[in-house]
Write a structure and sequence with these properties.
Rossmann fold; 46% helix; binds adenosine-5'-triphosphate; binds magnesium ion
Length: 160
């Protein structure tokens, strides 16, 4: 069975692409947010950043369990998915977005100023891409700034 992970800064467009891609190539879409809630991996609320601290190690363990037990090919959608060890992952898609456009998308979500700043910094410093490279994943980079979602999905499909 194959495993594709989709990572990138929040609001770059992971979910919208992951769901369409999964449908197109008949992979099962794995919603990591649901797994986090179901398994109570969001142990601590960080008020300053208006976000939950996720236990990366426990999440990895749970995801590896899902990968090992899966009877279908899967797409894992999460900005934490690239922490998975390379041996469990066939392809890592890193979704990117221009800073100005990303700011607009984050503001639309009514995130706090500090949360918007954090996410923009994360995109500026390419944190997900740098970490995915550190983990030696096979990477495809997709920029969603101007492209229609379908175009991004077609582009990925050709490269798989
Ligand atoms: N290619 C695109 N063109 C225009 N808008 C887009 C595009 N991709 C995503 N968006 C918009 O950006 C917002 C965020 O998209 P999405 O929820 O897929 O991001 P995400 O990376 O999954 O975020 P999170 O990490 O918080 O789950 C949505 O409002 C979506 O409509
Ligand atoms: Mg999402």
């Amino acid at each position: 069975m194959k495993t594709i992970i989709i990572t990138g800064t929040p609001c770059t467009g992971k979910t919208i692409i992951a769901k369409k891609l999964a449908k197109k190539i008949s992979y099962t879409y794995i919603d990591v947010n649901e797994i986090i809630k179901k398994n109570k991996l969001n142990n601590k609320y960080l008020k300053k950043y208006d976000t939950y601290e996720i236990d990366d190690k426990k999440l990895n363990k749970k995801l590896i369990e899902i990968i090992n037990n899966s009877k279908t090919n899967i797409i894992i959608d999460s900005h934490l998915s690239h922490y998975l060890p390379k041996k469990y992952v066939d392809l890592c898609i890193v979704i990117k977005c221009d800073i100005k456009e990303l700011k607009k998308r984050l503001e639309k979500r009514k995130y706090s100023k500090i949360k918007i700043r954090e996410n923009l910094d994360s995109e500026i410093f390419d944190i997900c891409l740098v970490e995915a490279k550190e983990n030696k994943h096979k990477i495809i980079i997709v920029d969603t700034t101007k492209k229609k979602v379908d175009k991004s999905v077609n582009e990925i499909t050709k490269k798989i």
